[in-house]
Design a protein that fits this description.
The protein has 234 residues and is α/β, with parallel strands linked by helices. It has 10 helices and 5 strands. Helix 1 packs parallel to helix 2, helix 7 packs across helix 10 and helix 9 packs antiparallel against helix 10. The longest helix has 27 residues. The radius of gyration is 18 Å and the shape is globular.
């Protein structure tokens, strides 16, 4: 499943809200960790990785997550020298647009680390290609349109080392995909065979929306918990 041609045409309210939440969280997260590193006499360095970055703004010029994160870093002297950023989108036109908008950001030279931008399907291999230093804290942002690229293996890779992951999880899309033959492989990659069978059976007996959401989330937590010891969910 890919995003429709007009997916970034207009900034839907929920998209603007998500961009604000993630950019503000990323800034606060980075400030806390870099202050901690300075307190330990460690050279401050953190990384933000967005695997579904989009073009950086909507057609009306409203900035989305990557641009907001970079603007915050440029304006924050404690982050401009410490923040590494990595952006990926499977659509090469989105990446070209994002690169162009980043190049026009006022104060861009203040950033010690130039943003890294690549264009390919989001996979574990993509993370390896970024070559993010394993020793530094990382914040991953996953906001896919659909779940073709999302697997437990990818989520596990995002939670390795000293990492946090913001994963926007659309219950309605997942519930619709669970019994869709075209999405069979995607759901198997996300939940695993036995869990997917159990999830289908449970959903078939439920009509309450909130109950259905809870059972989907519980299965995702279980799938991740089997692979990622010590992971905390919120």
């Amino acid at each position: 499943m890919t995003e429709p041609d007009d997916f970034f045409a207009e900034p839907r309210e929920h998209s603007q809200t998500k961009a604000r939440i993630v950019s503000k969280y990323a800034q606060g997260w980075a400030r806390i960790l870099t202050d901690f590193q300075r307190g330990k006499n460690i050279e401050p360095e953190v990384a933000v990785v967005d695997l579904f970055s989009g073009p950086g703004s909507y057609e009306d010029g409203t900035p989305s997550t990557p641009i907001l994160i970079l603007k915050n870093a440029i304006e924050d002297i404690k982050l401009s020298s410490a923040l590494r950023t990595y952006f990926n989108d499977h659509n090469i036109e989105n990446c070209e647009s994002l690169s162009e908008e980043i190049s026009q950001l006022p104060g861009l030279p203040r950033l010690r680390y130039k943003p890294v931008i690549i264009s390919e399907d989001a996979t574990v291999e993509t993370l390896n290609r970024f070559q993010v230093p394993s020793s530094i804290p990382k914040l991953f942002f996953l906001d896919p349109f659909g779940y073709k690229a999302i697997s437990v293996a990818l989520l596990k890779a995002c939670l390795a080392d000293w990492s946090e992951c913001i994963f926007f999880f659309n219950y309605r899309r997942i519930i619709a995909a669970v019994n869709n033959p075209a999405m069979q492989q995607n759901m198997l990659a996300l939940f695993g065979p036995s869990a997917l069978t159990e999830l289908r059976a449970q959903l078939a007996e439920m009509n309450d929306v909130l109950a259905r959401e809870r059972v989907v989330l519980d299965h995702l937590k279980k799938a991740l918990g089997k692979l990622c010891t010590g992971v905390q969910f919120s």
